[in-house]
Amino acid sequence: MDKATQEMKKVAEKKGIETAWDRYEKMIPQCGFGELGICCRNCVMGPCRIDPFGEGAKEGICGATADIIAARNLVRMIAAGAASHSDHGRDVAHTLLATSEGKTKGYSIKGKQKLYDLANELNVKTENRKIEEIAHDVAEKCFAEFGQQHGELQFTHRAPVKRQEIWRKNKFTPRGIDREIVEIMHRTHIGVDNDHENLIKQGIRASLGDGWGGSMIATDLSDVIFGIPEPIRSISNLGVLKEDEVNLVVHGHEPTLSDVIVSAATDKELIELAKQYGAKGINLAGICCTANEILMRHGIPLAGNFLQQELAVITGVVDLMLVDVQCVMPALSKLQSCFHTKVISTSPKAKFPGVEHVEFSEEEALPIAKKIVRMAIENYKNRKKELVNIPKEKMELVAGFTSEYVFKMLGGKYRSTYRPLNDAIIAGRIRGVVGIVGCNNPKIKYDWAHITLAKELIKNDVLVVVTGCSAMADAKAGLLVPEAAKEYAGKGLLEICEAVGCPPVLHMGSCVDISRILTTLCNVVSEGGLGEDISDLPVAAAAPEWMSEKAVSIGFYAVASGIYTVLGIPFPILGGKEITEFVTKGLENIVGANFAFESDPIKAAELIIKHLNKKREALKLKPMMYEPPVGAASPVENKNEKRNN
Ligand code: SF4
Ligand code: MSK
């Protein structure tokens, strides 16, 4: 769907360079057992696989059925996803602790108010204490959340009381972030938990430890160290790369290194050095969520999302790509040898064969960042002119909406409140709010599902909030600017966007920042008039092009928080009939929400709109103020029934 991507794919083809799309083609047909989730290698009596249709094995050697195998596999995905987000949170807590002890170079505490708010929430004393002392204790309290063995995670208390009760009643409240992940690994060992519902319930507990634990800690402590983002203009897509400047691309997830890279890339001496090497300056850009982090706080341009990482190198102008953790394709290692690009790994947790490693440490952050920028500058001279292909496409965007900013934006400087948002929903100007998140996946036309779903929803007066690679897809499509409201939004949403001056699609950050969406929903509930729980609200979530295990964890904590969630690609569980029934229907009776699988974004929009309408009816809200535009996805109740079947 994206022209820059089409152009770069052609360049790759011409040069005989394989990308993820080509490797995907080669992989077809993909393993059906894997897709249905019914292969198991949890012990070496196996590997075992269940024959879903024919006369073959219906049980593994130990007797595990398709449902048991699919459930074990799925909750192991949750464990990996929750571990990834939470380890990110742990690293940010480490940075805050080291900063409070004066052991870091390049960090300070920029979000002082957020630190005070967190201190109050975590019962850390603030009177007559230095900011460093408070930061120290806040960091220690957050660390304790990871290793806690009993009790309840602190931030789960942010949820509406009714939600907390549901979690307690069902033993979903996480006791400790790490504990729940470890317990999944124990339960999925051969011969332990063999009840698919019981397994999924532990998956829920671990996922809540991610959304209301590890991810929330990552977001909140990042705000303490780097400051709470505020709306900021920037640009996106591969066209942000510059032919006459040193291009340094950061890729991965954690803001700890990328944020100091911003300081290093604006260092006068280094800019002067770049000029000595014949470049006009240093151009910093980002891929994936580390890009979202520095976009929101510094306006650094987005080079692209997940499936554009290889294409960025293929432009031939990336002098250095520095990677940290998560979503970094090992393919980059081989690819760099076709160009002059230097790929640099920085995390001791994420090394790549053939890739130079410059180990990052918070204690020496700024000197390391400067060293990396210098390496990029020195590599500028090695560019091969004949290999340069920068697509022209770039698009303006506004990013950096947070739960704190939504308060100010809607309530004004002197009366910060969510009232206007709630009133707009109650009055039928806004139908509801939907979070669209997640990755790209070569199984789905690139960016298409993200953009189509977002457009269809805003056309139907649904306010859309986005994070991760979904946010980048919409950015490139021009949906993240206030002007997009005029072009794409329904009349009611347009009125709100024009009154406030905001885009119809709000960029709320990186993948861990989905916790910002949870906090926003808590605020909407406590503002009043829309029920007592998140599951009462006319809200939903979608991950139309997801691929990572983190998305599985996110999906589960969203549903367990009461948010109906539509996935563009089903979980790999369809070989287990009962577990599929449980996650798509049964969960509703327990947590008030469930999953739906729908790969067509227009049909996904219909499902979501139907859900929002149902919630509006239950709350006895006024009918929508304006009729949906001709050809819009609603109201299509009858058609929906058919499609649901
Ligand atoms: Fe086979 Fe059971 Fe071992 Fe899995 S745990 S590989 S199903 S014997
Ligand atoms: S980066 S997890 S591809 S959204 Fe967060 Fe994008 Fe998915 Fe990675």
Structure description:
The chain has 645 residues and is of the alpha/beta class. The chain has 26 helices and 16 strands. The strands form 4 sheets. The chain has a 6-stranded parallel β-sheet. Strands 13-12-11-14-15-16 form a 6-stranded parallel β-sheet, with helices on both faces. α4 packs across α24 (577-591), α9 (196-226) crosses α23 (549-560) and α10 packs across α15 (365-380). The radius of gyration is 24 Å and the shape is globular. Residues 633-645 have low confidence and may be disordered. The chain binds iron/sulfur cluster (SF4) and Broken Fe4S4 cluster (MSK). Broken Fe4S4 cluster binds at residues 253, 288-289, 305-306, 326-327, 438-439, 468-469, 510-511, 548, 550.
Labels describing this entry:
binds iron/sulfur cluster, Rossmann fold, 49% helix, Substrate Binding Domain Of Dnak, Chain:A, Domain 2, alpha/beta, six-stranded parallel β-sheet, 645 residues, disordered C terminus, binds Broken Fe4S4 cluster, globular
